């Protein structure tokens, strides 16, 4: 007897901030694998800021989710039926199962997981796409040197927390920016950042300047907006800026009010000889094995730490996703499906 598949589809496109009303839960029959395919039962769903972009029809580096389509997302899944020679039932994999209980895959993009090596949820966080983003963006573009100052915002999340910890492993000074005292305390006391600055505090530019007495050599850009405005005057000559994300602006509907500040930015680029480079994690796909080996070892040795924030049940995904964009998550945002 075919099982039911609960799935969450995009119900409408948000103008501005998304809400749970932009999603809809549906129940359909679970699909049946054809020759060369597997049926996946999704166990854990990853929620990530890029999903805001997929809800929009605007042209980007990946195609949007259409209205009525199942929301995309990475999952830890179990193979429950297989007509594929490489994947036996019972195999745990990380793949792209989406916001639903079951998914079909032809095996491409699936990576086998061994729970004896690391808890499987890490394949969506520190040992998954967010971790690889931190590792590749920081080491290829940021290139921190011992004694330099590295600043990162969204620092309690999966990307920012690893950026700061790798900066420390490379001998740099790590300054984290996060929302609220609890996250800031965690950065310093648990993760070993040198200083943490609360971007919701009264004087972000002043607090950041006090936290960076020697200026900033690497700014790993996750956020944009007011955080970037506070960072820009502090950048040192030849500072490097991997542009990873701009989460403060993902739901903007209009440009911020003037005056036009782009001349200030371009003057800084010129006079300080800044290196600013946008990147998408898969630009460094050929470094995945090196990332898994090195960060996997650091994790096993306890030299890097991570934190998960788990919502229980598929029906909680829309609310958890909306909260993620506002900083209500504390750690890698996951949804336990079953
Ligand atoms: P997080 O789990 O850190 O979640 C996003 C965080 O952003 C929130 O928790 C919140 O933390 C912070 N935030 C939201 N709004 C603001 C604001 N206005 N000002 C300051 N901080 C804000 O996300 P990830 O670690 O998964 O991702 C971090 C960034 O990396 C995102 O921009 C994401 O899009 C990007 N990214 C890019 C990739 C690429 O290939 N280029 C791949 C993966 C991620 P707080 O409470 O501290 O404010």
Can you offer a commentary on this structure?
This protein has 338 residues and is of the alpha/beta class. Helix 5 (204-211) packs across helix 6. The chain has 2 domains: 4-125 and 306-336, Alpha-Beta Complex (Quinone Oxidoreductase, Chain A, domain 1), CATH 3.90.180; 131-282, Rossmann fold (3-Layer(aba) Sandwich). The strands form 3 sheets. Strands 3, 4, 5, 6, 7, 14 and 15 form a 7-stranded mixed β-sheet that branches. The protein has a 6-stranded parallel β-sheet with strand order 10-9-8-11-12-13, sandwiched between helices. A two-stranded antiparallel sheet has the order 1-2. The protein has helices spanning 50-54, 129-142, 158-169, 181-189, 204-211, 225-231, 262-271, 288-300, 317-325; strands spanning 4-10, 23-29, 38-46, 75-82, 92-95, 102-105, 111-112, 149-153, 173-178, 195-198, 216-220, 235-243, 275-278, 308-312, 332-336. The two termini are 20 Å apart. The structure holds NADPH dihydro-nicotinamide-adenine-dinucleotide phosphate (NDP). Residues 48-50, 130, 133, 153-154, 156-160, 178-179, 183, 199, 222-223, 225, 227, 244-245, 247-248, 279-281, 324, 327, 329, 333 line the site of NADPH dihydro-nicotinamide-adenine-dinucleotide phosphate (NDP).
